[in-house]
Design a protein that fits this description.
The protein is α+β, with helices and mostly antiparallel strands and 441 residues long. The protein has helices at residues 2-21, 26-40, 52-67, 157-162, 173-176, 193-232, 237-251, 253-284, 286-293, 302-318; strands at 71-78, 86-87, 92-93, 97-114, 117-135, 145-147, 154-156, 179-187, 340-357, 360-373, 378-390, 403-405, 412-414, 436-440. Strands 1, 2, 3, 4, 5 and 8 form a six-stranded antiparallel sheet that branches. Strands 9-10-11-14 form a four-stranded antiparallel sheet. Strands 6-7 form a two-stranded antiparallel ribbon. Helix 1 packs across helix 2 (26-40) and helix 6 (193-232) runs antiparallel to helix 7. The relative contact order is 0.11.
C-alpha cells in the first residue's frame, strides 16, 4: 500500500516535471501509465497516458466488468531487479514517429470482487512490457490527424494545439505524445537475491532441520526401547538388532535430510523450467513471422504485431457487438468469451502459419493467456486467432488507420471504433491498412 502510494506520488511528480519542462520523457510516461492503470478499472480515472486504441480496449473491458456486477482492481507494487523500468534500444521509427519498448519488474496484484465478497486474488511477479509511441519531430506531424482525447472527434494535430474544431479543447504537444499504445503483463521468472532465499534456500534449510529433529527423536526412542528391554532382563539380541538398523537409518537422517534438501532445490528449479518450456517453444516460432514478413517493412516486427493483436482480441472479446468493429470479420466468438472479465498474456504467441500469397498475408497462431472468468475462475487458455492483411498497402507508425478519411464523403472519423462512416454509411475495409481478425477461438 505504501509502495503504491509512492508510485502514485512518483506519477504526480513526473506529471509536474513534465508541466515544468514542457516535455515528457518515455521513462516518465511509464510511471504515469502504471499509476493511472492501477486505478482505471476500480475508479473513473482516465487513462490519459494511453493512446486512443488502448483506451478503447479498456473501456470495453470496464463495461463488461460493470455488466457482470463485479469490481476489478489492479495494483503494480515495486519489486525485482528492474523496478524503475528500462527502455530498449530496438526503437523503430518511420522518420516522424518512433516506437519504444519498455519493460520493468513489479508485483502485479489483481483483485476481483462481487459486492463485498472476494472471488479472485492474484499476485504475480511480473514484467510489464509497454509499447510507447512518440513523435520524432513535432513540426512535421502538424497535418496528421489525431483523435481528440476530450471529445473523440478527429482533427489535425495543429488544430488540436490551437483548439479542437469540435469541442474547443486546446492541447500541448506533450499531452498528445508520447502515449502507451499497448501493454503486456508477463510472469517474471527472474529473481533478485531477496527472492531466491524464501523460494529455494529457506525451504531447503527447513527440510534439513526437520530431518535432524526426526533423527534425534528416533535415537531417543531407540535408546528408550533398548533400555526398556535390558531392564526386563529378557534376551536383548533381537531388539538390539532392530535397534541397530533403526539407529543406522535414523543416525544417517541428517545426511539424507541435506541430500533431500539439495534434491528439493534441484527439483524446484526443474519444475519452474518445465513450466516455462511451452512458452519458450512458442516464443521460438517468432522467427517464422520474422522471416516471412520482414521484406514488407519494419511495421511487421513480431513484438509490434503481437502487442497490437492482443489489444484487438481483447477489444473484440469484451465488446457487446463485435460485428461493428472494423478489425473483426469473424462470426461467433467462443462460448466462454462472454464470461471473460480479464485476460493476461502469458508472454508467448505461437505462430502456426505465416504466409503471403499475392497481396494477402495470413497469420494463424495462438495467444498463450490466462483468463479470468466472471465466476472468479482463473485458468490458462490459449486463444486461437487468424489474421489477414493486404501487404501492398503501407502504413506508418502514426496509426493513421485510427483516423480514416472516408473515400465516399471525405469526412474523417475514428476508424478503430467504427466500421461504417458515421456521416454517409460507407463501409470501411480495414484490411487495406491493418491486420483484420478472421476468427477467434
Ligand atoms: Zn475535441
Ligand atoms: Zn463517409
Amino acid at each position: 500500500m505504501i509502495d503504491m502510494v509512492k508510485l502514485l506520488l512518483m506519477g504526480d511528480k513526473a506529471r509536474r516535471d513534465r508541466k515544468n519542462m514542457g516535455v515528457i520523457s518515455v521513462t516518465d510516461i511509464r510511471k504515469i501509465f502504471l499509476s493511472e492503470f492501477g486505478k482505471t478499472f476500480s475508479s473513473d480515472t482516465r487513462l490519459t497516458s494511453a493512446d486512443n486504441d488502448m483506451r478503447f480496449a479498456v473501456e470495453m473491458q470496464k463495461k463488461r466488468i460493470a455488466q457482470k456486477g463485479l469490481w476489478l482492481d489492479y495494483d503494480f507494487i515495486p519489486r525485482g531487479h528492474n523496478n524503475a523500468g528500462r527502455n530498449y534500444n530496438d526503437v523503430f521509427t518511420d522518420g516522424k514517429y518512433a516506437a519504444h519498448m519498455s519493460s520493468g519488474t513489479c508485483t502485479f496484484k489483481r483483485v476481483l470482487k462481487k459486492g463485498d465478497r472476494l472471488i479472485s486474488l492474484k499476485k504475480l511477479p511480473a514484467n510489464i512490457w509497454l509499447m510507447i509511441m512518440d513523435v520524432k519531430n513535432g513540426d512535421r506531424v502538424g497535418d496528421d490527424i489525431y483523435i481528440c482525447p476530450n471529445c473523440g472527434k478527429p482533427s489535425p494535430i495543429k488544430e488540436l494545439i490551437e483548439g479542437c474544431r469540435s469541442c474547443g479543447t486546446r492541447f500541448k504537444m506533450d499531452e498528445l505524445y508520447p502515449k502507451v499504445s499497448n501493454y503486456n503483463i508477463v510472469r517474471d521468472y527472474s529473481m533478485d537475491k531477496s527472492e531466491i532465499f524464501p523460494k529455494y534456500i529457506l525451504p531447503a534449510i527447513l527440510f534439513g532441520l526437520g530431518a535432524i529433529v526426526l533423527s534425534i527423536i528416533g535415537i531417543l526412542i531407540a535408546l528408550a526401547a533398548g533400555i526398556g528391554s535390558y531392564l526386563k532382563g529378557g534376551s536383548t539380541e533381537g531388539s538390539q538388532m532392530v535397534m541397530g538398523v533403526f539407529a543406522t537409518i535414523i543416525g544417517g537422517a541428517p545426511v539424507y535430510g541435506f541430500m533431500g534438501a539439495g534434491l528439493f532445490i534441484f527439483g524446484r528449479l526443474i519444475f519452474d523450467a518445465l513450466k516455462a518450456m511451452p512458452l519458450l517453444q512458442a516464443q521460438r516460432t517468432r522467427t517464422l513471422f520474422e522471416n516471412v514478413m520482414k521484406p514488407y517493412g519494419q511495421e511487421y516486427m513480431p513484438d509490434f504485431f503481437i502487442g497490437r493483436t492482443i489489444g484487438k482480441v481483447k477489444t473484440v472479446i469484451f465488446s457487446d457487438n463485435p460485428s461493428e468493429l472494423p478489425f473483426y470479420k469473424g462470426k461467433d466468438l467462443p462460448s466462454d468469451a462472454k464470461d471473460m472479465v480479464d485476460i493476461v498474456f502469458r508472454g508467448a504467441f505461437r505462430f502456426d502459419k505465416v504466409e503471403v500469397s499475392g497481396s494477402k498475408a495470413v497469420v494463424e497462431g495462438e495467444i498463450y493467456s490466462e483468463v479470468l472468468y466472471a465466476n472468479g475462475k482463473n485458468s490458462n487458455r490459449n486463444i486461437g486467432v487468424r489474421l489477414v492483411k493486404d501487404v501492398t498497402k503501407k502504413h506508418g507508425l502514426d496509426f493513421s488507420i485510427s483516423t480514416y478519411q472516408c473515400p465516399s464523403c471525405a469526412a474523417s472519423f475514428d476508424a478503430y471504433r467504427n466500421k461504417f462512416c458515421p456521416y454517409c454509411g460507407h463501409e470501411y475495409d480495414m484490411e487495406n491498412d491493418d491486420w483484420v481478425i478472421e476468427y477467434i477461438r
